[in-house]
Amino acid sequence: MLPLLCCFLSLLTFLVHSCLRPWAPAKNSLKDEKEIDEGTYVVGEEETPKGLMREQMPRHVAVIMDGNRRWAERAGLLTSQGHEAGAKRLIEFAQLCFKLGIETVTAFAFSTENWGRHKIEVKCLMSLFQHYLKSKIHFFQSEEIRVSVIGNLEKIPESLLGTIKETEEATKSYKKKHLILAIDYSGRSDILQACKSIVKKSQQGLIREEDVNETLFERELLTKCTEFPSPDLLIRTSGEQRISNFLL
Fold this sequence. Notes:
With 248 residues, this protein is α/β, with parallel strands linked by helices. It contains eight helices and seven strands; from the N terminus they run H-E-E-E-H-H-E-H-H-E-H-E-H-H-E. The strands form two sheets. It has a five-stranded parallel beta sheet with strand order 5-6-4-3-7, sandwiched between helices. Strands 1-2 form a two-stranded antiparallel ribbon. Helix 1 (2-20) packs across helix 3 (79-99) and helix 3 (79-99) packs parallel to helix 4 (119-135).
């Protein structure tokens, strides 16, 4: 247990200092690093940083990449520029995780509570999601990265929904690397809708009381957690010590 904890702590330190924050230079100790395609970094696989053991790597890392607005304000930039910087860092972060042998990365991109932000900022974020998904489809395919989006999505613009479906369809066959974006997501709301779905199916006679178990409940969650492992490590980049209704 102790070696595993040490490995996770070393991994956390390495990832945070490498590429998690928009204001942190994208540097790491791996060889053969080169910059490609709008700030995306590919790192060599020849060397694992000191303190990290590939056989003890987490299978699934979740990240709350917040602090973009505060960083932009301190840097004298627009809020939209802060979000753009964060989006670039996410791609770098996911690439680095995959090179280290981590199978799944989930990013909390937009919470249900974020609809309460200024309309201009919300519109900017929706446009940013659409731009990055659309512009990165060929990149995801060339790197064989499966992309999934979890969340309610009822309020999402039709154009973004179309791009989400296109990206998911184009990458659904890939098995080894999985990037999950949580958009319009709330852990509590997800649990509530799963309960309602089970009750409805029970009333329709589709399931019996004795059928209700953890596996059935997991199948009803928007997180589709039967398709990938549960998170082993959760990182919040801003330093806040709370999970903000994420992957409960």
